[in-house]
Amino acid sequence: MAGSSDSDNLDAMRQEALNAADRISMQNLRKSGRQTARERISILLDSDSFIEVDAFVQHRSGDFNMHLHRPFGDGVVAGHGKIDGRRVVCFSQDYAIFDGTMGEMHARKIAKVAEFAEKSQLPLIGIWDGDGQRVHDGVPSLGATGELLDILVACSGRVPIFSIILGTVSGVSALAAGLSDFVILSDDHGQMFMRSPYFIPEITSGELTQESLGGANAHASRSGLACMVAEDEEDAILSAIEILSYLPDHTLAEPEFLPSSDSPDRTCKELNKIVPADSNRPYDMRKVITEVVDEGRFLELFQTYAENIVIGFARLDGKSIGVVGNQPKILAGCLDIDASVKAARFIRTCDAFNIPVVTFVDVPGFLPGTVQEWGGIIRHGAKLLYAYAEATIPKLTVVTRKAYGGAYLAMSCKHLRSDYNISWPTGELAVMGAEGAVNIIHRAELAEAEDPQSTHSELVEEYRRKFGDPYVAARNGWLDDVIEPEQTRHKLIQALRPLSSKREWIPPKKHGNIPL
User: Fold this and answer.
1) Rounded to 10 degrees, what is the CA torsion of 96, 99, 101, 104?
2) What pLDDT shows up at residue 1?
3) What does the alpha-carbon distance between residue 28 and residue 131 come to, in Å, rounded to a whole number?
4) pTM of the model
5) Domain 13-244: which topology?
6) Helices (H), ranges, 230-281
């Protein structure tokens, strides 16, 4: 009989843990159009694969009448499960309990599964929907949150970390989510603020709405925090699953190989007519990328941020690759502060998880102007150069058109130990464009010429004949080959196959000092 009673108590407690939120909070959650923490986890994971931990955890605060309400789980559901058969660690904040705020036990619970992810070398996926620190818990809450942040930093670069933002996330919760490799916001409810929106003057005065300041589109286009914006909660979760498919479980593993029906010998005839004959006319680098990669599938990240550079994941010969490409449609493909940081961060992510990087180069230089110079383009541009030079993954580079000056050097050139560098016949590897070079080299001659315009045109043509093609670089060994555009896919695959066993010896040091 005693055993039966204990079993009944356990069943009752487990049922209470599964339905920890009160009725009014649940009604408000439903009215807002959001799902519960458990419903979100059921979308994320394979059916019946979730193993929950700490379901019976309760907060320990006795102040502000908190002792009268101690729901099981303390506002977060955590554990591990499978996505397409792959084991992952996950947690989901529950807005129906204390508005998803992070109290002491709430933070310890997330820290516990994050530590489990690090030790088990498994990806960590967090679903965030909470209003920052729980002020009722006081300093103990801060201490536990500090431990959580420390664990997340320890996970960084060791296992992939995802943050899916499905509600208003502010304060330390936003800071913790910002430590992730990938942050995805839902367009319907996803918002992030460093301070609670209740204390931001522009919001309290009505000058700005919460959505315009910290909504999904603001973080996708202005702050550069969101790598993707999803239509709704389910789309956000599925986006995280799609990104994960290109990544390994941890830094010592290789990404999963997925056999492709797309022939490695396929010619890309469309590439022969993508680049205009006029070197000043724009084209869409995405068309080049989709023509080259397996089945034309390119998962672009940060689409609306720093649009003058394109980054994302694809597959080549069944292998995961990271793609970086200058975008001639925007600012002529010039590198600026945001583009440099965007690409550098992505390259370092690929390097951490053994994903080769293929770079498509059409860059006339760094963007000039006082805004860029005073904003620190030298320091930020150096980040891109640093990321390429530091990366030990296979690095392959295709010059489609312009590759000028310092921007050419920063875009995975041979001098930064890139493994395979090729150019199309339209490639122009030079210190700068022909017109600018002539204006500097022949300044005195042009000033004295009877017909400056005609003389200038002749000198520009002469400069282009000498330096306006890829063959000077090829003769010096700075290009491995000059190819017809239609051969690009085939040549890249041929180079990538032996590079899969690439290893570089790195002299011991604590870490480099990237110009942050």
Assistant:
1) -50
2) 47
3) 16
4) 0.93
5) 2-enoyl-CoA Hydratase; Chain A, domain 1 (3.90.226)
6) 233-244
